[in-house]
UniProtKB/TrEMBL annotation:
It is found in: Nucleus. Keywords: DNA-binding, Nucleus, Transcription, Transcription regulation. GO terms for molecular function: DNA-binding transcription factor activity; protein heterodimerization activity; transcription cis-regulatory region binding. This is BZIP domain-containing protein. One of its GO terms (cellular component) is nucleus. Residues 19-40 are annotated as: Disordered. InterPro entries: bZIP, bZIP_plant_GBF1, bZIP_sf. SMART domains: BRLZ (SM00338).
Length: 135
């Protein structure tokens, strides 16, 4: 019986040792798969980072171009607003001058030509004079 008990203890010890080796082998395999997954993930993330950096560079380049164009348009707008202001001032002064000076007698020798020879204004001629004052 001692022999059977000793065999049984030795047998359990061998089975435990084999079980531990198998468990260690599975653990190493899990660790290896985990490391491969991490390497793969690192590769994907590096690729994604490279793509994002390329996109950032492209967008930054577009932003610089748009900022330059925006500044150019702002400058042009400012110049046009100044020019419009000057034109409005000139028109205002011209209208003021026309309103303050006595009307010149006009004579229409032809429907298309106006001469300053004197004569009365017809209603059509008054309309022409009034519309020319508005512009």
């Amino acid at each position: 019986m001692e022999c059977a008990a000793a065999y049984s203890v030795e047998d359990r010890r061998l089975r435990r040792m084999m079980s531990n080796r198998e468990s260690a082998r599975r653990s190493r395999m899990r660790k290896q798969r985990h490391m491969e997954d991490l390497r793969s993930r690192v590769g994907r993330l590096r690729h994604e980072k490279r793509n994002l950096l390329d996109q950032i560079a492209a967008i930054s380049g577009c932003a610089v171009v748009l900022q330059h164009e925006n500044q150019k348009l702002r400058t042009e707008s400012s110049a046009l607003l100044h020019r419009l202001s000057v034109i409005r001032r000139v028109l205002f002064l011209r209208q003021l001058h026309l309103l303050s000076s006595p009307p010149l007698p006009l004579h229409f020798s032809d429907k298309d030509s106006i001469s300053c020879l004197g004569g009365e204004l017809s209603s059509g001629e008054e309309h022409i004079r009034a519309t020319s004052l508005m512009t």
